[in-house]
Amino acid sequence: MKTTIALTAAAALAAKVSAACWSQSLGYSCCTNASTPVVYSDNDGDWGVENGNWCGIPVPETCWAEKLGYSCCTSTSQVVYTDGDGNWGVENGNWCGITTGSTPGPSPSPNPDPTPDNTQYKISGNPFSGVEFYLNPYYVEEVENAIKQMTSSSLKAKAEKMKTYSNAIWLDNIKNMQSWLEPNLKGALSQHQSTGKDVLTVFVVYDLPGRDCHALASNGELLANDSDAQRYKTEYIDVIESHLKKYTAQPVVLIIEPDSLANMVTNIENTPACAESETYYYDGHAYLLKKFGVLDHVAMYLDIGHAFWLGWDDNREKATKVYKKVIDSGSPGKVRGFVDNVANYTPWEDPTLSRGPDTEWNPCPDEKRYLEAMYKDFTSAGIKSVYFVSDSSRNGHKTDRKHPGEWCNQTGVGIGARPQASPISGMSYLDAFYWIKPLGESDGTSDESAARFDGYCGHDTAMKPAPEAGQWFQKHFEQGLENANPPL
Ligand SMILES: *[C@@H]1O[C@H](CO)[C@@H](O)[C@H](O)[C@H]1NC(C)=O
Ligand SMILES: *[C@@H]1O[C@H](CO)[C@@H](O)[C@H](O)[C@H]1NC(C)=O
Ligand SMILES: CC(=O)N[C@H]1CO[C@H](CO)[C@@H](O)[C@@H]1O
């Protein structure tokens, strides 16, 4: 019976080798029950019989994602993103390919590939203004998983709202950059094509050689040496540049290397690792500023730590020199401004504090006063473009910390102001409040035996047990929702 068509079908079959339902192209339907007994086998595959007709027994689809350097999903079939390669899900913080397994037929495509768009978006002024913020499907999925672990309906309702707010996407190693950058640039273009609005995506560039020289919880993959510095340029910055040049129709904000320059201001003398990283930090900044700073649809903000890091007079004075030098070194690349309080807990306003013994004589005991002072210092030093983005992802509620320098998994955390452009009237240099560090992703592990354990994560006011930096931390997330200010 089937030998007659086997040859003509071979070509069609070759073109569809990965299809789970291989018999359709031969004119036979697929067995609806993949465990149906094998009645006959030939070069095409195994045949069964259902309702008196031959049917092809579906084979488990090969893991198509493997060829692209990803694994296939083992525990999820929820589609987070779809492109020409197939449907993608997320497992343990990485993209995974969803195989159709024994379910024949194409899956619905919730987020089709965008039509390529070569127009050039031009940022003029505040990049957060007049645009829609991109929603990261990966974070939405993390929140959905978090909701499944919740019992309180009021908490679930708050978590549902979290799915409507935007977060920055961290490109915190070469592999994550490859996984997160292009799919989300595409996603933003799709969002634009379905809403007609300009869609802003915010990425965090975070992989300098010798990264986070003063803390252990966020040490990076590249060491402070010449060959790793070269990898930073060619395997990280150059690749980011090539993707940005491909997706020019939508605005992009880049948050540049959190903590790095603040470490150059305060930790060169006391931390050998920071002294060793110095050349690479400066060189890395000059390199990336020249590349990204000339792209019309890209705006950059350099990280300036937070009020209880650089707020003191002497630190601000040193900082002004460091940032001026870095910006000059990146010419002709342009910098829009600065970002403060990334992944940190310092309240936006704290009227209970003023310069005195309680603040160790810091004249800037909250982020608002810090930015006011930095604005004055930077503009008087001749820095041309001085605008700020303030991370409000975990500073809504004053945490339990006894000392304002505590940063790890603080108890009493509350999500702060919602992401929004120009939030404070009379402060035209504040471009936005934005959630740079997604609430729920850990600051660092509290496991003292872990390689990246940092003493701060074991302190009294740090939540324990805490998972590794970047991993989901349910308790921290739930507390952030309960203490949200303004309330969710
Ligand atoms: C599929 O076939 C197997 C083997 O005949 C049988 O045990 C099983 O119950 C069938 N499943 C369904 C859903 O019909
Ligand atoms: C730099 O560090 C990397 C480890 O990240 C190592 O493989 C490489 O050999 C080092 N290069 C030099 C020149 O020391
Ligand atoms: C909310 C939470 O986990 N709090 C803990 C923080 O750490 C202290 C000291 O280890 C514990 O006593 C708290 O229960």
TrEMBL record:
Hydrolase as a keyword of this entry, yes or no, is yes
One Pfam family of this chain = CBM_10
Q: Where in the sequence is the active site?
A: 259, 443
Q: Where is this region: Disordered?
A: 99-118
Signal peptide (residue range): 1-19
Give GO BP annotations, semicolon-separated.
Answer: cellulose catabolic process
MF terms per GO, please?
hydrolase activity, hydrolyzing O-glycosyl compounds
Keywords (A to Z) from UniProt: Carbohydrate metabolism, Cellulose degradation, Disulfide bond, Glycosidase, Hydrolase, Polysaccharide degradation, Repeat, Signal
Q: Where does substrate bind?
A: 170, 172, 306, 309, 344, 407, 437, 441
Q: Where is the CBM10 domain?
A: 20-58, 62-99
Instruction: Quote the EC number.
Output: 3.2.1.-
What InterPro entries does this protein's entry cite? Beta_cellobiohydrolase, Beta_cellobiohydrolase_sf, CBM10/Dockerin_dom, Dockerin_dom_fun_sf, Glyco_hydro_6_CS
Q: Which spans does this entry mark as compositional bias, Pro residues?
A: 105-115
Task: Give the family per the record.
Answer: Belongs to the glycosyl hydrolase family 6.
User: In its UniProt entry, what is this protein called?
Assistant: Glucanase
Q: What species does this protein belong to?
A: Anaeromyces robustus
